Amino acid sequence: MFVEMPSPSIDTDGLSSSSATKCADEQRSASDSLNSLIEGKIQEPCLELDSLTEQCPVTCENNQKSKKRRSVCCNTVAQCVWGVLLLFMSIGGFIFQPLDFVLKEKLNMRPGFPPYEWWADPPDEVKLRVYVFNVTNHDRFMSGLDEKINIEEIGPIVYLEKLVHRNIVFNENSTMTFTGQRYPVFLPKENTIDLNATLLVPNLALLAMSSYLHDANYFVLTAFRLMVTTHGSKFFLKKTIYEYLWDYREPILDTSKNIAPGLVPVNNMGMLARIYADFTDEVTVKIGQQWGDEEFFQIDRFRGQPQLPGYDPNECPDRIFGSSEGVMYQQRLTKKDVVLYWRKTVCKLMPLYFDRELTLDNVPLYRYNLSESVFERVTNGTDCYDMVPSLPAGLSDASKCYFNIPMVASYPHFYTGRPPKDQYVTGLQPDRYKHNSYIIVEPLTGIPFRSVARMQSNLWVHDISRFSSPYSKFSNLVLPLFWAEYNQEGLPPKIRWTIYFIVVVLPPLSYVILSLLLLLGCYFLTKNIYNYHVRSEMLNSLLHYKSSNSQILSNNRLYAYEKEAFLKIPS
């Protein structure tokens, strides 16, 4: 028995429906592939580009090109901006050195900054050493056995000189006015001299008043001699060291002060008592960039006047402006500069000249010595520091700072030989190393590291032969009374190390830092410019390769499609 099987249905083209469907799908797939190739939608593998820094990687996700957001510091534009800024900073730093900025800022003396604070509250570094003279042959001198008085030096008596600045006012004309006060403090631990030890000294009250009245009329001379006889005053007195320095009193002083207070304004002639009795002064100094380095902190007014105190400006051409009290000097000192030092105890401007270079505490410094001709007579101009009759060379009139008492200043022990050491008294032992004066200053900042000022006070006795004997023994005589040394013995460590950093460390350190900034700025700019150039070339190469490859692939796929389509056509 036979069963009939259904015969397959064949379309009119002789192909089954499933084959036709398959063929249509293949044709659509080929067509889609061709279109995608022609339209350039070929998916290439994701390429990783070099980032500007290791912290900014480029990642690929889902076969699509993507990048993470870069930080501001790694951004190309930011790095270029930083590069330009660093270049400007480094170039500006080479032109305007950090040291120049520090020095310009110091000119302003702003409160709160180190220069002002150091000056306003100066360190206790100045030691006052006083040497007094004891007479050893007064009996022989008065009896005529010895022609000259013989003296011996006793000392030092050591004090700390305190300096206080008060009432500080900043003026509108770039000056600063303040009140400076100095006073000594006895240092028991540094003294080996007993202040109660006895000295034999000339009667300063008697000789000073006699010298002052040397040209008075006969009646005044007679009255003065009568007063001396009445009080029983002698030409030599015994005084303790303390009395000689601080409490020198005589009966004729009290009487004279009551009779003629204008002639004798005080009744205490103690050496240090007179010096420090009136040592509170109003001073105006120049500050600010208006005056520059050369005039920085120079005195403009002393007690409101531009001339020396006690001097007539019409008779004395010397002016106090341009000098310094020694706490701070002008900046950027050179070897040709003359440093003017003002000390009221000398009553004279003291010029210091460059001597040599040296190094202390690893800081390069300049030493300026006080001129050894400072007490010479002026021959080609007005001599403000002479008397009538004229003083010998080597002596300077200081009477205008001591109530017109005939006091004269000189070098200790007349060490320069002017006047000769044995011309007036014997026993002096001049020593250039022990008796000269100098300052050691850091030239850029004008801050003194060391300073030594040594001066001797003497009594100038005029020709008093009109008083007859024994007054005539003292006529035309220079009597050394004492000499003092003001010694700034260094600086506190914080100031010393700050100056060391500013002068020694800062200049080379600034060059290193500025050079690094310059290199870093160049690196940022060069790197980003180079990366931009490389990326531009790579992008052009990729686009060219992609275009060529797409064209080749498109042609190859088109040929394959045509070949496949031709083979699939039913015969």
From TrEMBL:
One of its GO terms (cellular component) is cytoplasm. Keywords: Cell membrane, Glycoprotein, Membrane, Transmembrane, Transmembrane helix. The keyword Cell membrane applies. It is found in: Cell membrane. Belongs to the CD36 family. Its main location: membrane. It comes from the Eukaryota. One of its GO terms (molecular function) is scavenger receptor activity. Pfam families: CD36. Residues 1-22 are annotated as: Disordered. The chain crosses the membrane at residues 72-96, 497-525. It comes from Galleria mellonella (Greater wax moth). The keyword rRNA-binding does not apply. Coiled coil: none annotated. PANTHER family: GH15894P, SCAVENGER RECEPTOR CLASS B TYPE-1 SR-B1. This is Scavenger receptor class B member 1-like.
